[in-house]
User: Fold this.
Amino acid sequence: MTDVDLSQVNLNLMVSLDALIAERSVTRAARRLGVSQSAMSHSLRQLRDLLDDALLVRGKGGMQPTPRALQLAVPLAHALASLRQTLRGEHSFDPRTSTRRFTLAMLDAIAMILLPGLMTRLRAAAPGVDLDIVPFEPRNYGLQLETGQVDAVVSVGFPDVPGVRLRRGPSSDFVCLVREGHPCVGESLSLQTWAKLPHILVSPQGSGGPGMVDTALAAHGLERRVAVRIRYFLAAPMLVAESDLVLTTTRALAQRFTRNFPLRMLEAPVELPQIRVGAGWHERFQDDPANQWLRELVLEALQDQMVVAPLRD
Assistant:
């Protein structure tokens, strides 16, 4: 195909193509756009004829984009994002009257800490604004931010991606959680007991390699047994509450868990590195008033939710 007459192109097909490439599934793309599966299949057939390419083919794990589809992905998403912004005409942003829906990417642990305070601020400052919360994907977050699919990312770690701007928020230290009435734990948690207890390790990406707890124990000639490795933070406190496992997690998250489960929060027996949660966005939206407002709101909510009192002075 050497040329395309834009007057003959249905813009809805480009929106469908963007969804198909992003979802890599006719069913999910249809659900995303609120159309029937048969309508999305018809759009895919039209796109294949228009672009003279299969675009999506069946492969291992489902539909896979062709090289032509991958070549189109970023510029197409960029063009659609620019068009949306142009049609909105947002040279300024008034949160009090806006009905915009923002998309934030974060892990479930950060969502548990951040969202209650963020929603309180949101309802007070922008009652018509809504949020979509999606999983943080380290491999794809740069593309998601660049194309506007995600407005901002809230995370602890940010893989280095060109064009992504970052602002660090507050830091948090680590504490330990055990169940109420744990037979092996007294008023405090000793180093030897910490090492001997079976541990639960939350590893969202599934790697589960040696971490800061292992490093801290190794410095004392000790090692731990990771009895359970899991990807979901929300499941961890339920397992700890009904077992003899110990969980080492951030103080802010531990305080959330102790409000809802019969758990005891104890100071870690050794000093562990602190982590800092922050927000990331793409430089394309650096001066966008809506994006500026959103990230300031997120960072303010983080400051409120992450700064918590220690167990003792």
Observations:
- DSSP finds eleven helices and twelve strands in the chain.
